[in-house]
Predict the 3D structure of the following.
Amino acid sequence: MHISLRTGEKFYINGAVLRADRKVSLELLNDATFLLEAHVMNVGDVTTPLRQLYFIVQIMLMNPADTPAAREMFAQALKTNRENFEDPEMQAGLSNAERLVAENRKFDALKAIRALLPMEAEILNKSNSAVPEAAA
């Protein structure tokens, strides 16, 4: 697998954080767990239940040593998301993410969760607009 990094870009691989000091192209010759900086969600961006689920899977991917504790957090966050979102398509997406995590395909789980974020935003916007404005 070929990976191209820009100057200053971070690359997370097997729990280590690397930063490119110049534009570089890398070739991974074996299986490795990695994440590009563009896919990393910062703590301040964890503002919704689904984003919390994404962040937990991201932790599992970036820091494999903490995976048992993160798996417990994942199970709880998954339960919360299933309770919050009744939409069948969202439920199917959550089941897919759960399966991918169980198969140790965390990067694919992140992609699956990321694909659900627009749907979550739409659902949350509908529920927020359904709440009547408080009288002044």
About this structure: Strands lie at 2-5, 10-13, 16-19, 24-27, 34-36. The chain has a mean pLDDT of 88.
